[in-house]
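step=encode ok
step=design start
structure_in=
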């Protein structure tokens, strides 16, 4: 025992991978010494395979064998799995001593050999085995079989098929139950013979299995004398890291061999990644046909799946499932994972001794679902099962013959196993003398199944006995990878590939020869290349055309020749070269073009091979050693003479020796005459004869003449005349155009229009039109409006004719005029009628407006560059300055950029902003002074077209821009300018913006004549007809198509609107006329400031009231409900709300002061409010009571806005902005929501003016009544917009104290209850100065003029008794009692003595405008607004403010808590979060109570007894 243990320890395995010759010699010696000492207590059998690398179902099959064997000794196994599958005759009792150990090779030779040594020598601590079952890879089985032979251990393989293992001289103890590859090789050769395949390519892995099977196939081909029918490509065997590059290179070789039939010989661990490479290289496509050996299979859970294999792929398989396989299937399906890898199984089969642990497997672990069916059983596993039974049956036979277990080994066991003859699950098991088992092979074919599936189907059988391949069903031919199903290979596979041809003697596909092309195909032939083509490599699919400069004169050329000098081949594929034409030559070989002689030279003959043969023709001029074509602007005679200038062009001499000229275009023909190169008319100098000499002035004939002593006078006189014009303009501009007679107004307007027309002439002069007399002379006269300084001989003043200096003077022309305006203003200050700053500002604005085109044209002059014959650009006005190159022009560009910023850009930005702010400035009192300052911009146009001044500026800017933008597109200049003027005319005819009819007519007529002038000048435009035809043709096509497109668009729009009517109103104001009629009007006015959408107010659409519900249903986007106390009880309001709810029109509830949400009970009983007749009216419109209730419940659940009617302008503006935002309405330009406008930012809480605004018209009334207050606010806004004089509402005595010193008029709106309003009484006392001098300081010197307005039909004039009682007792309130009664009565009498004009706050917009206009006539002070405002400013300087402290003490005024605007904003921002009023809002309403349907607000909180009594009487 000690010796045995010592030997075992000494023979321990070395580190893996270190196997040297010395080690092998020592190990075998040790084994030989130790083996006789071994004693066995049992008969051990070992089973190994690639369990951890290929499939662990091999482990399951080994365990299944042992379970089936143990059935002979364990009845419980029989009960569970059924009787044994393989019957063992005369079972010997000691047969139960057979033990089974299982190991893995992990597809690695080192692991497999080490596992075998563990089994053979007991190195794993177990009994050495006497028989070995395994393995799978031939490459691993060979070294193990060699060791087994030295140890005389019988080995039965179940997966190794290499023919080399049949050699009993090398492997005497090796047998196998799987057929050898020699039989499979016969099957492959039979496949080639059966389908008459002329050439097949064998792709094999370079290891014993792959090489052995390929060599066996090759041996069959050699034996038949047809070795040429088989080609081969080896692929490196890579059990570790897979080298895809090696596989790709092998497949590239395959593609060059000329056959589409592939025999694939690999094992499954190698073929799985190889399939991926084949797929990438296109070898799994329909252009190939593959037949695989039995070892080919796709590994489980690999990226490449069985479903990725193409239909038609074939595979040979040995028959492995015989009759008894059904019993094995039953056993298999009863197994569980615990039977295989449970703790007991692992210990019993020594799985934990694996050289590679089971948990480190490359394959999935065994699970119960492995045994659901036989799908997990591999081809080789039935052979494994039968291999193990070979040993069991042999041992049983020897035991029955009297042998002991220890004797059953070596040759005794080998001979008995060789004699095996039993029926296994793979069929009849027996061995030939070489230890091989003969069996039939199946030809499997991947065929399509239902629902897109594909399966391997048994299609044919190969018999090793007959050597024939037979289809199982002749009526069902094979599927081929081309997609065809036939008994023979499809033509696409049999045909030669492109680049190959079929050799007649062998029928093989051969690579195409040089000089030939092979398109491939059945019986493919090779075709000789035609003349002019060649094929210089074998295997060409097509012949290639000879490149340019080459030729191929013969058929089947393998190369092309080069063209000789003097010849060329300009196109590929030439069979000969052509001669160079006259005027060209080629001096080199292989020329594909001939070189032009250049510079217009020609040759006398064709085929010239030298530049020395080129000569100069007529029409050119000699420049150095070559002839050059005359430039544009030059004329060249025949010969060698230099060219001459053409009229209107100037030739600059760059190099006199080489006659290098640069031609420039002059201003006109007069300034550059047809003289010698570089010459100018008398007095002119510089490039393009641009400038006059120093102390010279330009003449009309193009020359310049010396300046005389009197030539400086025109400039001086021009300055004096301009100053006089400024003085006159300063006097005239003081008048308000609105206040002038139509005749004078028309004269002023038409005069301004004429100035713009004259400036437009200046722009027309810049167009590329060759003007002719007399219009040319007339346009020249307008040069003064373009600041043309030559008109006043400025060069005589400046001494030198410098373009930069001239441009600076042109830029300073406006500042010079402005300086004269300021000087005139300063002079006026010394007169009796000094001019105000507004007058000066207006005159300056008028000057800017009038000269805008001139200013824009002037600053754009440096950018107006024209092309010259030399390709460079020069200034149109100064052709001697090269654009963006010369220092002078760069200086002009810098000055022009400054001018653009200072003039058109600044002016347009400034006046655009002013125009956009015009509506808000008109609406705000503070902005009206600014509006008066901009009379030059607004007063010439109607109120509705206030923006037209900006439109004119934009039009004038484009009039100035077009000549610059289109300087290189002359053909478009007239079209673009005409289009601009036509568009302007259309807008003018549509809007009629000027204040008088004659002015509109004059502007329209002038614009029309300008268009006619341009159309008439069209034939005179200076363009290149040929270059402009395409542009003009395309433009005319677009213009001609435009009317048709416009007509079709209008028809489509009309049809669209017929079926999809437009929404007429963005907002529908639903309100109670008595409680919110004036509020509705006020909100409509406020909404117009922020959105252009139409707002429906019933008083403005009186003719549509019968269709009011239809308007809500089909023509409204949002319904805004002004929730006052009575609105939900009004029949028409309920109908509007219900219609909106039923038709899903967006509803925006706005809760006003005094409104409480209806309770459920109130909504349920709401029908009780109306009479039966009213219900009948609603029913006639399809509005039921249930629908009304549903709508009211819905409205109550909606998020709401809160409008505090006494909250001031900012509170109201915030609510309006929220309505616009929630209603998703478009906003006006400049009315961005969420940003406070200057018109409202100066108003603080309760409307106080925190910037000390000075309103001139004050409006007040019963400010404690919400509707009366709304009427006041409506009048204030309408009056201010109409008069454009600052107007302010007054809601408290404090405001009256602050604003009265600067106001001229007080407007009082009579409404019901005004005479009992204590706040109104206090304000009136302040306004009328009705208090004792002992109680207040000296009042202001300004006296307000009263204007009364009857704004309520419910107002009744008081009786004499009321006034008498008032004089005695006052209003009976604190500080308004008997002590102020006389003053108050006097004030009331003064107020009531003024005739009150009517105003209907609930009336239509037109009626209100008319009434406000009539009331405004009473403001006589502002009949001439500028004069009246000037008087106000003078009075402001001497105004004496009221002593606010004394007045406040006298009246007992105290501050009422103002409604916080921030609180209102916070409330409104909580919309969409709460449904209905919260408790906070209810608390705010505790201080309000309803009086006659209105809201009476108590300023101080709780009522005094006197105030309560007064209100009760009221």
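sequence_out=
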């Amino acid at each position: 025992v000690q010796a045995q243990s010592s030997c075992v320890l000494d023979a321990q395995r070395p580190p893996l991978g270190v196997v040297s010759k010395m080690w092998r010699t020592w190990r075998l010696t040790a084994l030989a010494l130790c083996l006789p000492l071994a004693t066995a207590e049992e008969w051990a059998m070992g089973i190994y395979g690639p369990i951890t690398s290929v499939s662990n179902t091999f482990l399951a099959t080994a365990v299944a064998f042992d379970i089936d064997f143990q059935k002979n000794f364990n009845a419980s196994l029989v009960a569970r799995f059924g009787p044994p599958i393989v019957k063992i005759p005369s079972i010997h009792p000691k047969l139960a001593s057979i033990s089974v150990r299982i190991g893995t090779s992990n597809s690695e030779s080192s692991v497999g050999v080490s596992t075998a040594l563990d089994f053979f020598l007991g190195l794993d601590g177990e009994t050495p085995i006497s028989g070995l079952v395994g393995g799978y890879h031939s490459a691993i089985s060979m070294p193990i079989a060699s060791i087994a032979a030295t140890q005389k251990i019988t080995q039965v393989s179940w997966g190794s098929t290499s023919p080399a293992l049949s050699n009993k001289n090398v492997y005497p103890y090796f047998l196998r139950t799987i057929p050898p590859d020699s039989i499979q090789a016969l099957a492959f050769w039979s496949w080639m013979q059966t389908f008459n395949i002329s050439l097949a390519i064998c792709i094999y892995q370079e290891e014993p299995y792959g090489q052995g099977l390929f060599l066996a196939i090759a041996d069959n081909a050699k034996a038949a004398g047809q070795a040429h029918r088989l080609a081969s490509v080896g692929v490196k065997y890579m059990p570790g890291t897979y080298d895809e590059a090696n596989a790709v290179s092998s497949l590239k070789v395959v593609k060059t061999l000329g056959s589409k039939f592939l025999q694939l010989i690999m094992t499954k661990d190698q073929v799985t990644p190889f399939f991926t490479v084949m797929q990438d290289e296109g070898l799994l496509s329909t252009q190939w046909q593959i037949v695989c050996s039995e070892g080919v299979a796709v590994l489980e859970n690999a990226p490449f799946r069985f479903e990725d294999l193409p239909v038609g792929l074939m595979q040979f398989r040995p028959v492995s499932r015989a009759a008894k396989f059904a019993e094995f299937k039953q056993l298999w399906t009863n197994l569980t994972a615990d039977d295989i890898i449970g703790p007991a199984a692992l210990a019993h089969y020594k799985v934990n001794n694996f050289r590679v642990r089971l948990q480190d497997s490359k394959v999935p672990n065994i699970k119960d679902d492995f045994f659901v069916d036989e799908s997990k059983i591999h081809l080789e596993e039935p052979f494994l099962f039968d291999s193990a039974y070979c040993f069991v049956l042999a041992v049983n036979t020897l035991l029955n013959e009297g042998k002991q277990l220890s004797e059953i080994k070596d040759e005794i066991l080998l001979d008995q196993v060789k004699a095996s003859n039993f029926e296994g699950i793979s069929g009849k098991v027996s061995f030939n003398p070489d230890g091989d088992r003969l069996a039939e092979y199946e030809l499997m074919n991947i065929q399509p199944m239902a629902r897109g599936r594909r399966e391997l189907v048994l299609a044919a059988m190969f018999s090793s006995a007959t050597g024939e391949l037979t289809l199982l069903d002749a009526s069902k031919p094979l599927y081929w990878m081309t997609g065809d199903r036939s008994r023979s290979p499809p033509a696409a596979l049999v045909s030669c590939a492109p680049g190959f041809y079929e050799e007649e003697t062998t029928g093989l596909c051969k690579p195409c020869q040089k000089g030939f092309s092979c398109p491939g195909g059945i019986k493919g032939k090779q075709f000789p290349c035609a003349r002019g083509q060649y094929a210089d490599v074998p295997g060409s699919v097509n012949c290639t055309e000879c490149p340019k400069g080459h030729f191929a004169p013969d058929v089947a050329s393998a190369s092309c020749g080069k063209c000789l000098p003097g010849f060329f081949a300009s196109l590929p594929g030439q069979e000969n070269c052509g001669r160079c034409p006259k005027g060209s030559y080629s001096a080199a070989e292989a020329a594909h073009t001939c070189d032009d002689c250049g510079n217009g030279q020609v040759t006398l003959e064709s085929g010239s091979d030298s530049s020395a043969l080129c000569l100069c023709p007529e029409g050119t001029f000699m420049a150095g050693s070559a002839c050059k074509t005359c430039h544009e602007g030059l004329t060249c005679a025949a010969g060698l003479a230099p060219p001459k200038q053409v009229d209107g062009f100037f030739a600059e001499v760059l190099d006199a020796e080489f006659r290098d000229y640069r031609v420039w275009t002059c201003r006109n023909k007069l300034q550059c005459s047809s003289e010698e190169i570089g010459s100018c008319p008398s007095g002119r100098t510089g490039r393009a004869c641009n400038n006059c000499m120093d102390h010279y002035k330009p003449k009309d004939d193009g020359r310049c003449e010396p300046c005389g002593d009197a030539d400086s006078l025109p400039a001086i006189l021009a300055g004096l005349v301009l100053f006089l014009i400024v003085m006159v303009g300063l006097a005239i501009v003081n008048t308000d155009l609105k206040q002038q007679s139509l005749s004078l107004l028309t004269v002023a307007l038409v005069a301004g229009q004429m100035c713009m027309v004259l400036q437009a002439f200046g722009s027309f002069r810049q167009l590329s039109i060759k003007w002719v007399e007399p219009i040319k002379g007339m346009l020249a006269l307008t040069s003064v409006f373009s600041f043309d300084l030559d008109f006043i001989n400025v060069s005589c003043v400046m001494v030198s004719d410098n373009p930069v200096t001239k441009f600076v003077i042109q830029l300073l022309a406006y500042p010079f005029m402005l300086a004269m305006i300021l000087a005139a203003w300063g002079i006026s200050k010394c007169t009796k009628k000094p001019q105000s700053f507004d007058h000066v500002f207006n005159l300056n604005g008028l000057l800017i407006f009038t000269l805008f085109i001139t200013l824009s044209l002037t600053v754009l002059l440096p950018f107006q560059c024209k092309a010259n014959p030399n390709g460079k650009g020069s200034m149109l006005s100064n052709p001697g300055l090269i654009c963006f190159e010369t220092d002078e022009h760069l200086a002009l560009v810098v000055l022009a950029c400054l001018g653009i910023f200072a003039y058109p850009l600044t002016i347009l930005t400034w006046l655009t902003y002013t125009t956009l702010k015009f509506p808000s400035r008109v609406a705000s009192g503070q902005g009206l002074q600014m509006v008066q300052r901009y009379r030059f911009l607004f007063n010439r146009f109607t109120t509705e077209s206030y923006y037209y001044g900006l439109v004119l500026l934009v039009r004038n800017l484009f009039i100035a821009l077009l000549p610059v933008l289109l300087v290189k597109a002359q053909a478009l200049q007239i079209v673009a300018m005409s289009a601009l003027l036509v568009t302007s005319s259309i807008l003018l005819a549509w809007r009629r913006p000027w204040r008088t009819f004659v002015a509109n007519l004059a502007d329209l007529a002038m614009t029309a004549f300008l268009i006619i002038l341009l159309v008439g000048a069209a034939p005179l435009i200076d363009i290149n007809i040929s270059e402009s035809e395409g542009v003009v043709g395309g433009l005319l096509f677009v213009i001609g198509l435009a009317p048709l497109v416009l007509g079709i668009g209008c028809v489509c729009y009309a049809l669209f609107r017929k079926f999809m009517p437009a929404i007429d109103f963005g907002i529908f104001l639903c309100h109670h006329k008595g409680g919110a009629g004036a509020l509705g009007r006020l909100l409509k006015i406020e909404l117009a400031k922020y959105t252009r959408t139409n707002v429906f107010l019933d008083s403005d659409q009186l003719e549509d009231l019968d269709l009011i519900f239809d308007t809500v249903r089909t023509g409204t986007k949002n319904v805004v409900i002004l929730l006052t106390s009575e609105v939900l009880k009004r029949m028409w309001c309920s109908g509007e709300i219900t219609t909106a709810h039923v038709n899903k029109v967006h509803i925006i509830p706005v809760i006003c002061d005094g409104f409480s949400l209806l309770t459920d009970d109130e909504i349920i009983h709401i029908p009780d409010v109306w009479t039966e007749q009213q219900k009948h009216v609603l029913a006639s419109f399809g509005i039921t009571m249930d629908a009304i209730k549903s709508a009211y419940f819905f409205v109550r659940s909606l998020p709401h806005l809160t409008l505090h009617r006494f909250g001031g302008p900012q509170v109201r503006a915030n609510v309006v902005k929220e309505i616009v935002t929630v209603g998703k309405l478009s906003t006006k330009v400049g009315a961005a929501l969420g940003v406070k406008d200057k018109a409202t930012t100066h108003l603080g809480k309760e409307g106080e003016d925190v910037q000390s605004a000075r309103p001139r018209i004050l409006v007040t009334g019963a400010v404690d009544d919400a509707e009366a207050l709304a009427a006041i606010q409506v009048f204030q806004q309408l009056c201010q917009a109409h008069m454009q004089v600052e107007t302010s509402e007054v809601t408290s005595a404090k405001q009256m104290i602050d604003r009265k010193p600067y106001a001229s008029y007080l407007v009082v709106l009579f409404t019901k209850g005004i005479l009992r309003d204590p706040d109104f009484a206090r304000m009136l006392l302040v306004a009328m100065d009705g208090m004792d001098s002992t109680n207040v300081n000296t009042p202001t010197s300004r006296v307000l003029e009263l204007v009364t307005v009857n704004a309520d039909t419910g107002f009744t004039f008081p009786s004499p008794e009321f006034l008498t009682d008032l004089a005695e007792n006052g209003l009976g309130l604190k500080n308004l009692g008997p002590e102020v009664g006389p003053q108050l009565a006097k004030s009331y009498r003064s107020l009531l003595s003024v005739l009150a004009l009517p105003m209907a706050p609930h009336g239509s917009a037109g009626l209100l405008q008319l009434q406000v206009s009539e009331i405004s006539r009473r403001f006589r002070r502002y009949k001439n607004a500028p004069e009246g405002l000037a008087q106000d400013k003078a009075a402001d300087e001497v105004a004496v403010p009221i002593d606010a402290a004394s007045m406040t003490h006298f009246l007992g005024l105290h501050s009422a808590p103002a409604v916080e605007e921030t609180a209102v904003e916070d409330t409104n921002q909580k919309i969409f979060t709460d449904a209905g009023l919260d408790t906070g809002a209810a608390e705010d309403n505790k201080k309000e109570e309803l009086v006659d349907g209105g809201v009476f607000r108590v300023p101080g909180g709780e009522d005094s007894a006197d105030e309560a009594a007064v209100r009760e009487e009221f």
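step=design ok
step=annotate ok -> The chain has a mean pLDDT of 81.
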